[in-house]
Amino acid sequence: MLTAILLAYDAPAQPLRRDAVARSLASLVDACVQGLVADAVVAGAPGGGLDRVADEAGCALVEAETTTEGLAQALSVARREGVLALNAGYAVERGFIDEVNDALAYGAGERAYVLRAAPSSLLTRLAPRLAPPVGIIARKSAMRSAASADFKHLAKRLRCFELASAARCAF
Do the beta carbons of residue 66 and residue 87 sit within 8 Å? Predict the structure, then answer.
């Protein structure tokens, strides 16, 4: 079982809306029902209005100024050793739950996985690895030692394996 950490920080080009955070959490409900996700933590900037979203969803809330601080605090609150860190505004697609359950059951326990954004251009359709990483599944201790909330950097540092499923934009 995993602890889902939703990083709800504004992107430079587009501010994050609370409904996008709610859609990201809603995409994980089936994972909770099927036993993949045990609990969730929402990490965001103070004063972002995420307290209502976290309260309605039954999640823990961590407020920190930067994404790196938010992830570090969320990791300390996480109840499970396995963690799914996901950028808010993205929703996991069908097949994600089965693929991750199989990977965790039959893969090495220390293996980390990267979840990329669904293809949005011709280039990312032809080469899906060029899509930006929007989620990481790894051990809490490995993510803590990497000390970064940049998923591209984390994927390289943790030597993540690619998941075939993707996450679609939820806004």
Answer: no
